[in-house]
Amino acid sequence: MSDAPGIARRSTASDDGNFDSLRAEGIRLLQELSGETWTDYNLHDPGITILEHLCYGLTDLIYRTGFDVEDYLTGTDGHIDFEAQALHLPHEILPCRPTTADDYRRKIIDAVQSVDDVWIWPWPREGGGGGGDGTAAGGPGLYQIMVREGASASGTLEGADERTRETLSETLRVFHENRNLCEDVHVLTVAEEIDYHLSADIDIVGARPVVDILQEVYEVAEAYIAGHPRPIDPVRSLRDGMTLDQIFEGPSGDTGVTLLDARGLDHENIFIADIVSSLQTVEGVARVRDLYLRPEGSVPPPGQDASGGAAGAPSTPPQPLDTVPRCARIPGDGTTRWSVPRLADPRRRPVQGEGPEAKSRFAAALETWDDRVRLWRDGRRLEEPADFPARYRKTRLDRRGRRRSYEELDSFYRAPRGEYRELAKYHSIQEHFPAIYGVNAEGVPSSAPDSVRRSAYRLKAYLLLFEQVMANFAANLDHLPELFSTKHAKATGDSLGADSTYRFQTLGEDTIPGFRQLFGSGTVTRDQRFEDDPGSAPTGPYLGDPQGHLERVIAHFDDVEDRKGRLLDHMLAAFGESLTPGSSRELEQSEGGDGSAIPHVRNKARFLERIVEVTRDRAGALDYRTGDFGDATGFKRRVAFQLGIEETDVGSLTSNPSVGSGAVGAEPPGREGFHVLEHILLRPADGAAEKHMWDDFYAFRMSVFFPNWVGRSRRPGFRHQAEEAVRVSCPAHVHAQCFWLDPEEMVALEGLANAWLQERRRELQGLLDLGRRGTEGPTPSVDDPAAQLVSFVMETQTSHGI
Q1: Burial (0-12, 13-18, 19+ Cβ within 10 Å), 556
Q2: Is residue 390 part of a domain?
Q3: In angstroms, rounded to a whole number, what is the distance separating the alpha carbons of residues 575 and 202?
Q4: Domain for residue 615, yes or no?
Q5: Omega within 30 of 0 (cis) for the link into 778
Q6: Spatial contact of 144 and 336, defined as CB atoms under 8 Å apart
Q7: Where are the beta strands (DSSP E) in 549-642?
Q8: Hey, how many other C-beta atoms are within 10 angstroms of the C-beta on 261?
Q9: Which parts of 665-742 fold into alpha helices (H)?
Q10: Are residues 198 and 226 in contact, defined by beta-carbon separation less than 8 angstroms?
Q11: What is the pLDDT of residue 31?
């Protein structure tokens, strides 16, 4: 059993905060501490009266601790400052960064309007690769992305090539903006859609209009064949019992709502039997017969009766396939081309022209035209409405346009709100004392002798000790929003911007009856208050300046830096996070630093303010389409917070190319930052590399370069802490190796990296052109600068004894 220190759980068997329990505990302590001199604990005893009034006051304070958390955080305007409290709404905190291939798919579908669906596979994909013989170069961390373009708004092919390039460009943008460490796109292509004509005989019943039944039949079949993902309807999902964490599972879309696939959808094959089952759920459908799918350009099944058969006589059964692949590779000469099925639009019945040739064409067109859904009622084939094909095409386009038409989050989810309570307001217990004590608002009668008046004042002074503590407790309750806040931990200079983490309130005439006579207001002389006994007048630091006196007393016991740091630790723990300011502070003290906790406290506050992105994007990598080599990424930000490195210390770590050439003893210029180099980005353009290079260098490997000449980086203790922060922050499947470079080495690294990055961006433009043609792999122009970086890393490993 663990013997670690902790706070014992409060027993639920009894309530220690009610009046009777407090009174019983008070008497027990009286008996224990003064049992030999105080033997009368009956109701008439003045000490018991005082005890009971104090217990009554405590019950009021205990009552104030039982409100909902929202009430303590609500301001006078009735709102909660979520930003200051480092609190976040579900749609902000629950969605994750795209992590799996399916997560990337959802993100791309939601963000790219021209994409209907996306297939993302690890590269090389089993059963097919980059070469014509089915083999492929490459290794873990590479992806092949195939997009399925949606129909244009006009439904025409005009400008199709430019639209395809824009679709691929947007797909790359979304992937790279969400790219994780040691991952990259190796193949990007557009799926070629193959039209499949649906043929079936369907018996219908009931009074539902024929056109509505036919419309829904095609919609259900299209939804299954195309497998389009659908958005979550938050309102319906909540009504169906889904929780907020289920609704916001996975990456969020642009509107904060994720996408889901059709439930039970097989991602590999289309099953004819499943289409039949789906169609039988349509209202008005009694039976589905002779259903098959025919690819565009193929011959109809042999024996198919083009006219659909005589009334009441079923047509000759076709020869249907049991399954149709959802994604099939198109044979080619080493290219990567894939086809996906889609449901062909119902075509308008052909019109017969004049002449034998026209009649022949009409007969052939009529035969293929009848590859369609035929509705039957009571053994009689029903005529298809003439306007149905055009109506269906319009409805299809409208439906695709509505795919991202989500409801606003405010329509189904409201941010928590509390009730503002004046927690700091204190009402003196002296108001409840019997009048005979002379301490309530009535005071001592004017006819009472001075000795009675002095006794009443002494009792008031005695009670003030307890009331000050209780009033301070109420002030601290009211201070909770500021106490658990990040705002007062970011002030510049030598303080945190908060005078104290404890709060107090001075008591006065508006709180304590007769307070002015007790302590004076500067207008009543001492002789006027105690004419016969001047020596009994109150003296001491409280007189005249109670505010300053209490501030000095509390400051003596309040270590603002330490306590604010522990409060922020508590807030971090709510997110399962922690920073280690204590160890950093001790480290600086042991290595010559001043050991001040203020920078670490501020670092915690900044971390809390950005807790969503720092935790969600902890594996975030560089968007090398637009970013520079030294730009901050999700991973770099997290490590920087662990080490207390300012985010401004990014970019080039050597601001002067001629470092090291200055005066003797001068410190070379530089910044307290670091660089991250992902090895997979340095792979050969065609992905071809020896297996040991993929396993030992490219796959899930990266190098982290720190300067060895700037500030804390000279200290062995800080270097150990930095390397530990990198290991802890790194994803579990990624191996990171840390290096400490001198100025000349850092200049060389940055020069090589910038040259490589320029070629890498040009390569992306080539990848877009290759994707449109259905070929694969980057262009080889990037190989030379990448090889130089590989050599640099390997030489650095050797020089550092790795």
Answers
A1: exposed
A2: yes
A3: 56
A4: no
A5: no
A6: yes
A7: none
A8: 15
A9: 691-693, 716-729
A10: no
A11: 86
In one-letter notation, the amino acid at residue 625 is: R
Give the whole-angstrom CA distance, residue 249 versus residue 178. 17
**SS3 for 746?**
helix
Amino acid at 293: L
Q: Give the closest residue to 317 by CA, choosing from 302, 336, 328.
A: 302
Match 């040691």 to its residue by tokens.
182
Q: What angle do CA 568, 573, 2 make, to 5 degrees?
A: 120
Q: Is the separation of the CB atoms in 682 and 789 below 8 Å?
A: yes
**Residue 29, number of CB atoms within 10 A of its CB:** 11
> Comparing C-alpha atoms, which of 477, 469, 474, 471 is closest to residue 428?
471
Give me 719's structure tokens. Answer: 């270097």
Cα separation, 337 vs 329, in Å, equals 6
Residue 626 is assigned to a structural domain of this protein: yes
Tokens of 382: 């029903």
Sign of CA dihedral 789, 795, 799, 801: positive
Q: Where are the beta strands (DSSP E) in 604-750?
A: 675-678, 701-707, 735-741
What confidence score (pLDDT) does residue 312 get? Answer: 41
CB 219 within 8 A of CB 209: no
- Let me know if 88 is exposed, middle or buried by CB neighbors in 10 A (0-12, 13-18, 19+): middle
Taking the chain (802 residues) in runs of 10, the rounded mean pLDDT of each run is: 66 71 89 81 84 93 93 91 90 89 88 86 58 57 88 50 87 94 91 87 92 91 81 76 82 67 71 91 93 73 42 44 80 72 75 68 60 87 84 76 56 82 93 90 88 90 91 94 81 57 87 74 42 46 73 87 90 88 48 64 90 94 91 93 81 60 50 92 83 89 94 90 93 95 94 92 74 52 88 92 78
Bond into 657 cis (ω within 30): no
Going through 51-208 in order, the beta strands assigned E by DSSP cover 115-123, 142-149, 184-190, 192-204
Last residue of a domain, one of 370, 402, 434: 402
Distance CA 153, CA 397 (A): 7
- Provide the phi-psi class of 539: left if phi over 0, else alpha when psi is between -120 and 50, else beta: beta
Tokens matching residue 37: 């001199």
**Domains identified in the chain, total number:** 2
Dist. CA 190–CA 771, nearest whole Å: 7
CA 26/CA 430 separation, integer angstroms: 19
Q: Domain for residue 729, yes or no?
A: yes
Contact 433, 466 (CB under 8 A): no
Q: Describe the crossing of helices 598-609 and 581-590 by its angle, rounded to 10 degrees.
A: 150
Q: Look at residue 380 and give its three-state secondary structure.
A: strand
Domain span including residue 662: 620-799
Structure tokens at 506: 């001075």
H helices present in 340-387, as ranges: 356-369
The residue count of the chain comes to 802
Which residue in 270, 437, 285, 482 sits closest to 373, CA to CA? 285
Secondary structure of 242-306 in HEC code, one letter for each residue: CCHHHHCCCCCCCCCCCEECCCCCCCCEEEHHHHHHHHCCCCCEEEEEEEEEEECCCCCCCCCCC
How buried is 202 (Cβ within 10 angstroms: 0-12 exposed, 13-18 middle, 19+ buried)?
A: buried
Amino acid identity of residue 166, one-letter, is E
Domain termination residue (choose one: 402, 419, 441): 402
H or E element that contains 698: none
Contact (Cβ atoms closer than 8 angstroms) between residue 209 and residue 189 = no
Cα–Cα nearest to 47, from 30, 35, 60, 32: 30
Tokens for 556, please give them. 């003596």
3-state secondary structure of 243: coil
Up-side HSE of residue 476: CA atoms within 13 Å toward CB? 13
Give the number of other CB atoms < 10 A from CB of residue 588.
21
Q: Are 59 and 23 in contact (CB under 8 A)?
A: no
CA 32 – CA 118 distance, rounded (Å): 77
